[in-house]
Amino acid sequence: MTIALAFVVYPPTSKVKPEQETMETAAALAEFDMLDALAFIINKISCELSCKCSGGGDAHASTMVLLNYLSSYPWHAKVVLTLAAFAVIFGEFWLVAQSSGSNTLAKSVALLKQLPDIVENSVSLRPQFDALNKLVKAALDVTMCIVEFKELPSEYISEDVPPMSVASAHIPIAAYWVIRSIVACASQIASLIGMRNEAISSATEAWELSSLAHKVNSIYEHLKNQLALCYQAIDEKRHIEAFHNLIRLFETVHVDNMKIMRALIYAKDDIPPLIDGTTKLKVSLEVLRRKHVLLLISDLDLSQEEIMILDNLYKDARSRGETHYEMVWIPVVDKATWNEVNKQKFEYLQASMPWYSVRDPFIIEPSVIKYIKEVWNFTKRAILVALDPHGRLSSQNALHMIWIWGNLAFPFTREKEESLWKQEIWSLELLVDGIDPTVLDWMTEGKIICLYGGEDLEWIETFTQTAMNLARTGNFDLEMVYVGKSNAKERMQRMISTFNTKKFSYFWPNVTSIWFFWARLESMLYSKLQQGKTVENDKIMSEVMTVLSFDGSDRGWAIFCRGPSEMARAKGDTALTSLRDFDKWKHKIEQDGWVPALGEYIKEIQQPHHCNRLILPGSTGGIPQKVVCAECGRQMEKYFMYRCCVE
Question: Sieve element occlusion C-terminal domain: from which residue to which, for each copy (predicted)?
């Protein structure tokens, strides 16, 4: 019979080797031998429960007898075996009680045991059975909890250290109260025998069971909290292990990029983890195999300006086919603060992207988020991590390169960045490339071009009127371009409306162009910082920091340009004074040129007293320890500024 049962559990398959069949049969026999042994033990405990509880007796003494009998078993086995034994008693009782109305044998057993009629006494017995069920459930909850502690992976958590050591100290007490609860339940069942014709009063018994259930529930809540702490500790160790595995993975040479992509995005094969931004279909990671991949990593505050510029560059790259890469958006979100509003923001951003994005932000493992933050230095601002077709890191943040040179920066390596910088000089083309071709057309035509910024309307009106009047009287071509101020989108929108009305000069009619102008300047600075350049040894970096410090002032500023390389710049009051003093330096124009003559005069009238501020976003990384003033060369003092600009 045992062998026949074994073949039910382990059905033979075709071409099974004799030795394999023998091993399977032996395993099945061992399992049934174990079940037979457990059945014997459960029956013994069931008998002990029935005997000890049938005459009332002391619950504590009965509990200790059972614990003594089970002394060779671990705590989780003690409670499981005792609960199983009670299940036999409880099951037999209910089988007889519920079937006595329709089954002759059950009716005879109920009569012999003098069990009360459950249907007739349902009202009076309900409080008693409700309390009994609650206590059984509480005991079962604690038992499951104790078993769960036993099944925790020992390689990630030790019994010798908290929180497991704290839980281990409470498990014997919890086991005692589980077994004592079972004794109380068994006593309650036993007390019903012989009460067929007696009046049933259950208020006292129900109260005692309820009090016990309350105590066991308290134990369960405590154990559940400790279990949650254990899982948290296990998760932390697993995340650290996965984090170090990710580090090792990036240090290893691979045939293609799939191991890296699976480790970063989604390792399983059960669902396609990406959404194609063009078709909006779910796709697998295979679409990234052996391709250059840009990982756009951001929170849910990714700006529309960033998406718009990246959209243009991405579509341009795909249409040309020369610099083919794929892009994947990986949103970094906090599960603790996730709500419907954040979900809608995620879906809105995802719908506005033509490139790939993860279908669900929570498929990204915590270890990957840790890697992104600690190794790739992501904090708040978006970064664009470039990986080559083998999954090797090309750039920790290619966003600076792509803002400055667009797709010309492909494949976004450090060598490519250095090569592009070698071709650059400080020029008008570097300042406005990719923003406004009209300005570059003026440059080709040999016109004098003035870029100016700030948001002091009084200065802007005076400065533009003075400059245009001077151009008319001096009979030279002057074009003026308002480039606004950084990090002030709402205020710039109002400035654009003002320029539309008052027609001060030519201006960029959208906030995106203004944002991109300043984003490129910041990118130039950070690119130079990453290369280890300083204002002392790099002309472009010095000029970029000067313009950024102009933007940090309260007044306006101006840069005058002519041709590819003639440039002169000054803060607002100095620029205005130099135009008003045109007669003092106009005699040098014929010999030196208009812009160089202006530049020399600006140096002459520049006051030694100045107060320059350079405001750098602290969330981008790479903030230099030492910054010198671009105007006088002295080291600038460092202050911390916390800003919240709700416009």
Answer: 416-645
Task: Quote the crossing angle between the two packed helices 203-251 and 366-374, to the nearest 10°.
Answer: 50
**Rounded-to-integer distance, Cα 93 and Cα 331, Å:** 58
Degrees (nearest 5) of the Cα angle 518, 523, 524?
100
DSSP per-residue letters across 143-207: HHHHHHHHTS-TTT--TTSTTHHHHHHHHHHHHHHHHHHHHHHHHHHHHTTT-TTS----HHHHH
* Per-residue model confidence as pLDDT tens digits over 138-179: 999 999 999 999 999 988 888 888 888 888 899 999 999 999
- How far apart are the C-alpha atoms of 463 and 469, rounded to whole Å? 10
Where is pLDDT greater, at 646 or 324? 324
Structure-model confidence comparison of residues 220 and 533, the more confident one: 220
Query: 103-121 pLDDT, tens per residue?
Result: 676 566 656 665 555 545 5
**Angle at the Cα of 459 (from 457 to 460), degrees rounded to 5?**
60
- Are 196 and 117 spatial neighbours (Cβ–Cβ below 8 Å)? yes
Rg (CA), the chain: 40
Query: Under CATH, which number does the domain 257-419 receive?
Result: 3.40.30.10
Is the backbone of residue 153 left (phi > 0), alpha (psi -120 to 50) or beta?
beta
Dihedrals phi, psi of 198, to nearest 5 degrees? -105, 155
The candidate with the shortest Cα–Cα distance to 213, out of 141, 125, 126, is: 141
Mean pLDDT within 424-443: 92
The rounded distance, in Å, linking the Cα atoms of 249 and 263 is: 9
In what helix (H) or strand (E) does residue 386 lie, and over which residues does it extend? strand 383-387
Task: List the one residue out of 498, 514, 485 whose CA is nearest residue 457.
Answer: 498
From the number of C-beta atoms within 10 Å of its C-beta (0-12, 13-18, 19+), residue 381 rates as: buried
Q: In the chain, where are the structural domains located? A: 35-242, 257-419, 428-636
pLDDT value for 107: 65
- Please check whether residue 107 is in contact with residue 206, taking contact to mean a CB–CB distance below 8 angstroms: no
- Give the 3-state secondary structure percentages of the chain, helix then strand then coil, rounded to 5: 60, 10, 30
| Predicted model pTM | 0.78
- Take residue 462 and report the two structure tokens written for it: 């005076």
- Tell me the per-residue pLDDT of 354-396, one tens digit each, with 9 for 90 and over: 999 999 999 999 999 999 999 999 988 999 999 999 999 999 9
Output the six-digit token pair for 636.
């600038």
pLDDT tens digits along 327-339: 999 999 998 889 9
* Average pLDDT for the chain: 84
